[in-house]
Amino acid sequence: xxxxxxxxxxxxxxxxxxxxxxxxxxxxxxxxxxxxxxxxxxxxxxxxxxxxxxxxxxxxxxxxxxxxxxxxxxxx
Length: 76
Known about the structure:
Elements: H1 3-18, H2 23-37, H3 40-52, H4 59-67
InterPro entries: Formate_DH_dsu
Protein name: Formate dehydrogenase subunit delta
């Protein structure tokens, strides 16, 4: 999985939603879009990027993913 390409796509999604006047709605829109349209392995790779090297993710994408508890791995 090309994480650089996934990061670019996530940042494009973030740019689109960042224009929304309601910040919370923008954050929800980012995560909802990724959950609806990205296949599970893409979401897992993005989560791994978030955990290991989030520097290339835009601030709004990082915030959106960190604010949504369902992105966090389940506790065992």
